# Entry
Amino acid sequence: MQRYNLCFLGFGNVGRALARLFGTKAAELAQLYGIDCRITGVATRRLGWLWNAEGFKLETLIAGNMDQANIQQARDLGEWLEKAQPAAVLETTSLNVETGQPAINYLRASLQAGAHAITANKGAVVYGYEELTDLARRVGKRFLFESTVLDSAPVFSLFRECLPAVRLRGFDGVFNSTTNVILEAMETGRTFAEGVKAAQELGVTETDPSHDVEGWDSTVKVCALATVLMKTSVRPSDVRREGIRALDAQTLRQARAEGRPFKLVSRAKVAADGSVSASVRPEQLSATDPLSCVRGTSLAVHFELDMMPGLTIMSHRPNLQSTAYGLLADFINAIRGS
Ligand SMILES: NC(=O)c1ccc[n+]([C@@H]2O[C@H](COP(=O)([O-])OP(=O)(O)OC[C@H]3O[C@@H](n4cnc5c(N)ncnc54)[C@H](OP(=O)(O)O)[C@@H]3O)[C@@H](O)[C@H]2O)c1
# Structure
């Protein structure tokens, strides 16, 4: 049995779901992979840099009780990493659409301390992908981020492991659960605010829900996909972005009745000169468009490849556990070296 120390940086909806998942999968991880994990570090803005060399008690940690024996407070990130000795840092702090910070600094320090750096934070991919991937290679660790775009549905690992020598010409997708939930609520007579509340109750909104509503979350996802899969740096300011606020309930109900519902659609296309144009905006989709059947929290992406005219991946009603699974899968792949 190989023992691994884990550090959680960010302990909100996703962080707690991931801690729970490590608990429910513990026996399987031990049996299938000979892995025994314990959480030796938890850090957030409010909690500070907590560590426990013996490992936190999982149940009380998930319940938000930090009143456990042997918990100590480190001065800063450096001391926290030194004391908690993580094999992997699982980073789930809030999205910063403008710089990707401080997540990039956290992930850089984690790699420099000899840990795999695994994140659900798409800002870190958009603004830090090249630097963190290079650094990970140099120190013999992994920088992985499967949860960032389609929760746990394999997108980055699919291209990395299964689609060598393929060129991505373009993609379109529905990347944001919150706007889907809001639009559907309004189609059935509920208000915009009730739609936001429903999405918050599902735990799928960004820390600041205006990031969803105004299209920032989708925009950053477009940038993450383009940066990694099209190998072209696309920044949020390069994406034509329009949120869903201007859509009224009457328009939405009529569109749904006609079988041509509105969705917040993300698109990117590689031009002949290699440049990438991208947009995020509400679009009315035809009934035959595969994206028109994306309902509730479901997410989908359709890829146009030089070797395949179309490849669609849909994640049906993912939840917080699905997002958490993406991080768990990254961790297993990191320690297996795949
Ligand atoms: N929720 C989803 O369905 C989903 C799906 C895919 C990806 N993601 C991504 O996963 C990440 C976390 O999402 P979430 O829903 O778990 O958010 P959340 O519930 O708001 O939790 C965010 C956590 O990050 C901590 N944090 C924020 N800024 C920090 C900082 N500067 N330093 C240290 N800790 C900081 C917060 O601590 P305090 O409370 O102490 O400030 C909190 O523990 C985001 O990047 C999001 O884009 C979320």
The chain has two domains: 2-152+321-336, 162-317.
